[in-house]
Amino acid sequence: MNPRPRTDQIPAPRRPSRSRPLIASLAGAATAALVATGVLLGPGANAAEPSPYQRGPAPTSSSIEASRGPFATSQVSVSALSANGFGGGDIYYPTDTSQGTFGAVAIAPGFTARKSSMAWLASRLATHGFVVFNIDTLTTSDQPASRGRQLLAALDQLTRDSRVSSRIDPTRLAVMGHSMGGGGTLEASRSRPSLQAAVPLTPWNITKSWSGNQVPTLVVGAEQDTVASVASHAQPFYRSLPSAPGKAYLELDGASHFAPNLSNTTIAKYSLSWLKLFVDNDERYRQFVCPGPTGDRNVSQYLNTCSSFTP
Asked: Which domains are delineated in the chain?
């Protein structure tokens, strides 16, 4: 199926912050040209400086689809015995210290799964300029609410008491997860609105309404999901989220519930772009998620509320 993109018109965000203030939308070729150069015009201003959190070269379709980004990375493990409130995990981080600190992301696996199921995505995101904590949960049967608490515990330990804390900007954090880990991502976002982004992947949760969530959220569903069907999970989750400060729904064409457990270019490139836009305030990535994919045969549906934010 071909994607059916739609941009919903929304009012100005109710909670503008220094990290996500509102500007007027720019359209068409002018927007594309400005995004490509990393400069956006705002009302009453001649030009805006690129985000101070911008990391790496300007993105292209090829660069965000590549299996590795521009940053060399290293890895350190946290044992279950030394983890506080979660089951341990692996931290992937850029070795470059010349560009300043990086945003950080915690990732949780799904029901019965372990961190190995999401290692491909964690390592890939790190090569694009994020510190990524790919965690195990306390038990593989932990429910979404518990997984949400564990994601936040992992972020706290990552930013306050880990070997890479000095490389992280603790004000720029995000959460991701698969299945019940995706449900946990929504739980974590509701509990901690200071998070900058959330990406639940084929999420499962018995709670269907997330109207109180204030974190920009990309919900990724799978068209052929028989475990957490999009009609019962991903789609109502997306609909219940408030339009501001930004949300999107991406449906993987012909994919199953377990699509996030194997290397998947579609998941990687749109997740990366969402994180870059909302964690790093990097407007160069807006083109890939707002308005989003057109003509991508791997995407059966894409919906969004494309607010515009200045650096």
From this structure: 5-10+71-305 (3.40.50.1820)
